[in-house]
């Protein structure tokens, strides 16, 4: 009987650890936004330079809190590209309300995600971005789940962005630990981490472990990840994300 209570205590302790971040966000009211997605702002956050003000090629990776209660657990991520001399950006993302979930179209790169202000995870410009863009287009077109969407554990919007990053050589961007779905590998169990220097093991996105130079160490339990990032001097908490003093993703010198 003592063993039963001990194991039960461990189980509920683990559940509490996983849900502590989302519960804190929910009770603090820090993520409250519009009452309806129809009225939530989709305006630009004015992070990316206007096309007419930037002749160079640009590749950016963004993320923002998911809509409604999902935002307590995860972010939605996307990729924006602008070819050299182009008059517009293209936004590449996955959304779950269409039969064909992949969207790759002209648009503002830094729009709020239904009220949630985006964060810039990576900003690559100039010749380096110019070389990456054709490969990004090819990776977007070859995404293996163009008609599939599962918010948890994937494939979802974060699965898509992680797929593109892994497929494009030189696009090494660590996604945050609360980008639920980034660890969904489909039929694979082992893959390179999006950050480019490291590997991860994942069982359907439900359980896994990740180790990378940019990502640090992550443990995934039921899609919720926690860990540490020694180089960034950071800790990773489920729902909350990474609290770090440094950013090891590529960021242009003139980024905001």
Question: Describe it for me?
Answer:
The chain is an alpha+beta fold and 256 residues long. The protein has one domain (49-243). The chain is built from three helices and twelve strands, in the order H-E-E-E-E-E-H-H-E-E-E-E-E-E-E. It has helices at 2-28, 127-141, 157-167; strands at 58-65, 75-82, 90-94, 102-106, 119-125, 190-192, 198-203, 207-212, 216-221, 224-229, 234-237, 241-243. The strands form two sheets. A seven-stranded antiparallel beta sheet has the order 6-7-8-9-10-11-12, with no helix packed on it.
Q: Give the structural class.
A: alpha+beta
Give the CA-based shape: globular
Q: How would a crystallographer describe the biggest sheet?
A: 7 strands, antiparallel
**What is the oligomer described by this structure?**
single chain
Order of helices and strands: HEEEEEHHEEEEEEE
Uncertain stretches of 5 or more adjacent residues: none
Question: How far apart, in Å, are the first and last alpha carbons?
Answer: 58 Å
The tally of domains stands at 1
Number of helices: 3
Q: Mean of residue pLDDT?
A: 92
Strand order of the largest sheet: 6-7-8-9-10-11-12
- How helix-rich are the residues, as a percent range? 10-25%
> Which strand-content bin applies to the residues?
25-35%
Strand segment count: 12
Specify Rg, calculated over alpha carbons.
18 Å
